UniProtKB/TrEMBL annotation:
InterPro entries: ATPase_NBD, ROK, ROK_cs, WH-like_DNA-bd_sf, WH_DNA-bd_sf
Family: Belongs to the ROK (NagC/XylR) family.
Native species: Streptomyces prasinosporus
Pfam family, one: ROK
Record-linked PANTHER family: BIFUNCTIONAL UDP-N-ACETYLGLUCOSAMINE 2-EPIMERASE_N-ACETYLMANNOSAMINE KINASE, ROK (REPRESSOR, ORF, KINASE) FAMILY
Positions of the UniProt region annotated as Disordered: 1-23
Lineage: Bacteria, Bacillati, Actinomycetota, Actinomycetes, Kitasatosporales
Protein known as: ROK family protein
Length: 400
């Protein structure tokens, strides 16, 4: 670590009681719970059909979850099958537990308090005065403390904390190996946060965290293969293949932002040239608009306003960005054949300026049946990214 990043500390919170463990001690129990969480309410028969488990295995898995209050009988939604007795569906009791999620950007931390069904109960934003680990962790500690105080009003324990950070994140080790927007290298974030918060902590790449939320609670529910592509400060991609979020052997799967799309194009901070991120990120678009038009533009909002006023040069920059994004999405479709690609991120503010180019470039570059992939936009504020961080904490808690 650099001297600046070395051994940051932030104030510990009051001691808490021992962490509660999830009463699902087998993979089958975790699978049943996750299935009910994402698809419920479900009868036991429906849960067996969806998971491929036997009715006896489902009954055995459900019993301790009911006893511990994580599942409840949904008697008001009784289902009458074609034959046999009516069956009461089971559903997750969202109010049984709470989780905290933090999304860290280069300028602020967005925090949410969610229930077990990942519904946001409280949301907060706090600015960052600096990006050094010590400064960020101090602000994060204050924000977590505030959300824990809010949780007391619900009378339910907080059982996990998820933190989402852009860049190369080793979730298993809880380490941010490299975050370009924070200029962090090898920061053991999970350990530091766990020491302070007294909670189990999950740290993951922000786009992967958003993908978990989409898989369990959003537009990816029920899909075996899909991708989330985010455009904005960077270009990210989360991948779900055969029902699993893909991290890759080294934790960097889905880095389409560093796929070259423009031969001999502009330099990228990764050291290559013509990367998708060097053409279509907010910073790249802003810089290019200034070069092409000769008009000083301070940020993406000013670049967008200039294009919306009809400046031909600015509009051409957005068109080129849309073509690059379309080719990037086609690369994902050609390699993995997802059923759906969900486009999100703050860069969607300019979607009307490059939607046609994304569509046309995707259609031209997608090979054969890959072109059947549905491309869907889903504008999501950063609170939803923080919700993704909470989703990773829920995922870790239930052992999935």
């Amino acid at each position: 670590m650099t001297e600046e990043n070395k051994e940051p500390r932030f104030p510990a919170m009051p001691s808490t009681s021992p962490a509660e463990t999830f009463p699902a001690h087998t993979p089958a129990a975790s699978q049943i719970f996750t299935t009910v969480l994402t698809h419920g309410p479900l009868t036991r028969q429906e849960a067996a059909r969806r998971t491929g488990l036997s009715p006896a295995a489902v009954t055995k898995a459900v019993r301790p979850l009911l006893e511990a209050g994580y599942l409840v009988e949904d008697a008001g939604a009784e289902v009458r099958p074609p034959v046999g007795r009516p069956a009461s569906p089971v559903r997750v009791d969202g109010g049984r537990a709470l989780f905290v999620g933090l999304k860290v950007t280069g300028d602020e931390i967005i925090g949410v308090l969610t229930d077990l069904c990942c519904r946001i109960r409280v949301a907060r934003r706090v600015p960052l005065s600096g990006r050094a680990p010590r400064q960020v962790l101090t602000v994060a500690a204050d924000l977590v403390r505030e959300l824990l105080t809010e949780a007391e009003g619900f009378g339910v324990r907080v059982l996990g904390l998820g933190i989402a950070v852009a860049g190369d994140v080793d979730r298993a080790a809880g380490t941010v190996r490299y975050s370009p927007f924070l200029d962090w290298r090898d920061v053991p974030l999970a350990g530091l946060a766990e020491e302070a918060a007294g909670l189990p902590v999950t740290v993951d790449n922000d786009v992967r965290a958003l993908t978990v939320a989409e898989q369990w609670f959003g537009d990816g529910v029920g899909l075996s293969d899909f991708a989330v592509v985010t455009v904005g400060a960077g270009i990210g991609c989360g991948l779900v293949v055969h029902g699993r979020v893909v991290s890759g052997a080294h934790g960097v799967a889905g880095e389409i932002g560093h796929v070259p799309v423009v031969p001999d194009g502009p330099p990228c901070h990764c050291g290559d040239r013509g990367c998708l991120e060097a053409v279509a990120s907010d910073a790249a678009i802003t810089a290019r608009v200034g070069e092409v038009t000769g008009v000083p533009v301070a940020d993406a909002a000013e670049a967008l306003a200039l294009a919306r006023r009809g400046d031909a040069g600015a509009r051409a920059v957005y068109a080129r960005a849309g073509e690059a994004i379309g080719r990037g999405i086609a690369t994902v479709a050609n390699l993995l054949g997802p059923e759906r690609v969900i486009i999100s991120g703050e860069g969607l503010a300019a979607y009307d300026l490059f939607a046609g180019q994304i569509r046309d470039a995707f259609t031209a570059a997608a090979f054969g049946s890959a072109a059947r992939c549905e491309v869907r936009t889903r504008p999501l504020p950063f609170e939803e990214w923080a919700r993704g961080a909470a989703a990773t904490a829920i995922q870790s808690f239930v052992g999935r």
